[in-house]
Amino acid sequence: MENGKCRVCVTGAAGFIGSSLVKKLLEKGYTVHATLRNLGDASKVQLLKSFPHADTELVLFEADINRPDEFEQAIHGCMCVFHVATPLQPSDASQFKNTSEAAVSAIKSIAECCTKSGSVKRLIYTASVCAASPLKDDGSGYKESIDETCWTPLNLSLASSNGFFKDYTVSKTLAENEVLGYGSSEKDGGMTVVTLACGIVGGDTVLSYTPGSVAAFISQVTHNAHSYRSVKYAEELLGKLPIVHINDVCEAHIFCMEKPSISGRFLIASAFVSAAQLAGCYQLYYPEFNVKAEKLDGAKGDAKWGSTKLIEKGFEYKSDLKMIIDDSIRCARRTGDLQH
Ligand SMILES: NC(=O)c1ccc[n+]([C@@H]2O[C@H](COP(=O)([O-])OP(=O)(O)OC[C@H]3O[C@@H](n4cnc5c(N)ncnc54)[C@H](OP(=O)(O)O)[C@@H]3O)[C@@H](O)[C@H]2O)c1
Question: Which of 195, 196, 202, 258 could form a disulfide with 324 if both were Cys (CB 3.0 to 4.6 A apart)?
Fold first, then answer.
């Protein structure tokens, strides 16, 4: 898996993580089968086709999680599949009753295609750290630290939650749990499965708009109350905010593809801070944005980051919190979400 010119598949290729991952894979010499929901969406198609080497090394496919069989063609002939796409809203036209059912069904269909393909050696799922809450099942507070052994209890009821956050958290938890059931037995034909449970992803983007997670990450300086709500939810769910740069997320995906022997679950974040600590960083580095005093006041949190699994495998994070902040601010200035 180490040299270029191998064929790989990326689902959700036109999203924030998907587009940066496709660009990096093309730069590294891979041939990429990229899926998006609608090949008639000219802006998404043009963006992907504008990447260096896309003219010869990028093949686009249409596939929707609500019709899971559609991924088969894109997977055919690939040696690795990055399953990045996730359903964020239930679809009226769907055979599934909610996003969790759709996400789990897509995992089954994609994993079965991979094992039948004879070519796929590794399936890498872009999971979320929201599936790894260190909250205790009995609601009596947080475990000592957050690491790969933590799984979010499905019946959680949190003060800062809403229907969207709850559905997303349950869907990511069930989907990750489902995909980890593959890749361990003989019937899976030697395919291994990796899940990368990413923290809040910040940094700049190839997209023309500020991605949702970047908008949340900088919500203390944009004063966007809607985006800030997801920060408060993440903090309540996880004890503090796990944060990671988009470049490190993409490099971690590629690292896990190229590593000859690796499988299982990995948490991905290079910083773990409270919302109040993050607000303090904005006040220090970007005083011109006037962070509101109440944002600086929250609890500093005593949750600890306990995950070292990927680093022990040899992965190195290249971006610290300051770099993630700087690149996220640059992104929002470029897209016009920050005026100065
Ligand atoms: N950003 C973060 O902070 C973060 C953190 C942890 C985990 N993740 C995970 O990373 C993945 C990508 O997230 P992102 O931040 O890049 O979000 P994003 O920009 O909103 O991208 C979501 C992608 O999912 C695709 N998608 C949505 N509904 C779909 C459906 N029914 N069928 C097929 N594809 C569908 C979209 O495809 P179209 O473009 O074709 O509509 C889009 O490419 C997700 O699995 C997310 O859970 C993200």
Answer: 202
